[in-house]
């Protein structure tokens, strides 16, 4: 069949036009897909960022805690109790708030924590936050509040539990070094971790081991986070020393880190922070939100006066 040249030209033009139209549609579709993808991605990012952003309530809690944990440029008894409470909530099983929610504070091994437990429980209810999170946040806050204290990451999102953990797991003040090393190893801590963690006794005061000397501090500067605990324990010049601390200071396994930390606060902090972070995550699963930004910036050059809430809470 004969087709004229003009007709062929017309058909060619039409074919080209159709191809261009299809190409344009495909390009537009691709562009629309990219636009929708960009919008969806942006929404997801915003939602993710919102979920990963520390709730503002932790800043409010931080302000309250600072007023309780610092006085006259020194960390207070409430701060000491908060640091101790973090260990006591976690080490028996998990960082799950059972110290307060299961009334473990009434146990003999937790003597001295009753007031703190009551007040943190009330604060958690008032601010509608998790008790397990508040215990660990308060400890990180107390450490940071003490002059010289390092920043321990504070994360929230733990699951609370009102089921009591087993008794008799917390080490005694007379424990042998070998027993302590073995116990902490069973929880995933090295001998160096253990030695770094007991440095928290830098701000501690004993009340139970020798009731006749209740309130005696474990180094000469209990209001500061420093290395005198290590040096004074080694020298035997601390106001009061637990036998377990003496045992670790003299153990062939832990005496070297003991001496290292006595000579360098930087070395101690470098070991303490990851060990304490590990402690705060015992038995914890799932994704947590970082609230380290809600902690105070440090207190070595400032003195926050007690607020009226101090009298109301009666730490």
From TrEMBL:
Keywords: Calcium, Disulfide bond, Glycoprotein, Heme, Iron, Metal-binding, Oxidoreductase, Peroxidase, Signal. GO terms for biological process: response to oxidative stress. The keyword Glycoprotein applies. Disulfide bonds join 75-146. Binds 1 heme b (iron(II)-protoporphyrin IX) group per subunit. It catalyses: 2 a phenolic donor + H2O2 = 2 a phenolic radical donor + 2 H2O. The record marks 84 as: Transition state stabilizer. The active site is at 88 (proton acceptor). Residues 1-19 form the signal peptide. Its EC number is 1.11.1.-. InterPro entries: Haem_peroxidase (IPR002016), Haem_peroxidase_sf (IPR010255), Ligninase (IPR001621), Peroxidase_pln (IPR000823), Peroxidases_AS (IPR019794). One of its GO terms (molecular function) is heme binding. Its cofactor is heme b; Ca(2+). It comes from the Eukaryota. It is an enzyme of class 1 (oxidoreductase). SUPFAM superfamilies: Heme-dependent peroxidases. Ca(2+) 1 binds at residues 89, 96, 98. This is Peroxidase. It comes from Lentithecium fluviatile CBS 122367.
